[in-house]
Amino acid sequence: MKTFVRFFLLLFLFGCTGNDPVSFFKKGTWVDLTHEFDENTVYWPTNIPFRHDTVFYGMTDQGYFYSSFRYSAEEHGGTHFDAPFHFGKGKSSIEKVPLSQLVGEGIVIDVSEKALKDRDYQVSIKDFESWEKQNGKIPEQAMILIRTGYSQFWNDHLRYMGTVKKGAEGVAELHFPALHPDAAKWLATQRKINGIGVDTPGIDYGQSKDFMTHRTLFQHDLTAYENLTNLDKLPSRGFYVVALPMKIKGGSGAPLRIIAWIPDPNE
What we know:
Blueprint: H1 2-17, H2 22-26, E1 29-32, E2 51-59, E3 65-72, E4 80-82, E5 103-110, H3 112-115, E6 122-123, H4 125-135, E7 142-147, H5 157-161, H6 167-172, E8 178-179, H7 181-190, E9 193-198, H8 212-219, E10 223-226, E11 237-245, E12 253-262
Parallel strand pairs: 5-7, 6-8, 7-9, 9-10
Antiparallel strand pairs: 1-12, 2-3, 4-10, 4-12, 5-11, 11-12
Helix pairs in contact: 7-8
C-alpha cells in the first residue's frame, strides 16, 4: 500500500511543481491484460460470435489509401466487463459505474496449480485467507485478479471452455474454474473492493446453474472482468489496474481494455 501512497503523493507534487509526471510512468511497466478480438474470440455457446467485416480497403479514386471496417459483437464475450446491472435489477449499467471503481490497486490470487488439476475448481475463502497470510490484508478498493492458468488455452476452445459445442448443448458441457459464491459473499461483505476478474470465460464456474457468484457480487454493486490474460506477468500485489469498458448506455456489459502498471522496484 505504501507504493500507492507514494504514487498519489508524487502525482500531487508533480501537479504543484509543474513537473511532467510522464517520466514517472516511464520508469514502470505497462501490461496488457486484454485478449485481441477476432474470429477466434471466446463467446458463450448461445451467443453470436464476434464479426469484423470490411467496408473498404485499398486505394481510393483520389489515389490515397483508406481502410474502414464494421464489427458486431454481444456485450459478454472476449475480454469484457460485467456491470452490476448484468444480474442486478436496478443496479448500475455500464455508463453509471463511477470512474473511481474502474481503477485501483491490483492483487493476483494464483490458484493455477489447483485449477489446472481440476477444471471445475472454485476459488475459496481459504484461498484468499492464505494470500493474506503471505501478503497482508487485501487493500481497500482493490481490483482482484484470479489466475487459473487457463489463459494459455485461449486458442483451444475445448481446453479453455471444456466444449466446442454451441447452444444449450454447449452450455451444459462448460467446464472451467472460477470464484465460489461463498468467497464472493466474503469479499463483498468482509472486504472493500472495486471488482474482481478471472482468466476464464466467467466469474461463476462452468457448471454453475444459478450464477450465484455473479448475483452476489452485483447485488453489492461490484464489477467483474472475464477472459483476462497475462496475469502470469504480474506480481502478487503492488501494481495498479485500469479497467475501461466501452461506454454503452444502458449496457449490462461491454468489451474491455484492461491494463496494469507495475512500478519500477528501484524507484
